[in-house]
Amino acid sequence: MTASALLQRLWQDYARLSPQAARIRALFEERGERVVDDHVALRTFDDPRVSIDVVARPFVLAGYRAAAEYTFPEKKLRARHYEPRERGLPLLFVSELRLDACSAELRTVVADLLDGFSARDDVAVAGRPWALRRAQYDLLAAESEYGAWLAAFGYCANHFTVRVNDLGTFAGLAALNDFLKRNGFPLNTAGGEIKGSPDVHLEQSSTLAEPVEVELADGKITVPGVYYEFALRHRLPNGELYLGFVERSADKIFESTDRR
Ligand code: NI
Coil, helix or strand for 237? Predict the structure, then answer.
């Protein structure tokens, strides 16, 4: 699959999960904006069958290359971002839950989910490839909001991100945030509405994930789904636009899918 085809597939599944992203995009377009994606984020476990390497593989085959790594010790996560070969395509940010840092009980649940799973090339867009029971979800949620979200939704975009630099009708990220709130979209306030600053070359904000009903093997639950993010990038001293990520900000952005 080409990178564009992969991204289109991710957007379709994402827009189905989160009507708010498509609504916000439409609101921007009504103002005459042309929306450009900054990055797309995927989540996984660090099991060798589904690790970052496996999830990113179709993108690497389509021309993306690994660029930088990040760690989030408190959330037991690590991440890597990938840059596209083609201009105009978004960055890819893939994170994984470090199972060695989790409890034996959590590892057992993940082992059960992945039982019989064999690595496949299209895992990045595979949806949820396992059946999930309520007790498994609850055990994961008690220890890792990230793990619970991943178990419930599997392989789809956790968020798409708009590159605010390419919007012409907002004075800055604060003005954009005000517009979103005026239109009824609550923002993630963990760490403040705006994470980061020009000093770290990146400012980000995000909506809170909307509740989504998820079908389990033994019933249904309603849990936070996916969210929309907004990134304003600043120039490095050498004049180039900063295209990396900021650990302290991303750490808080992960909380956009926490249960409230
Ligand atoms: Ni992001």
Answer: coil
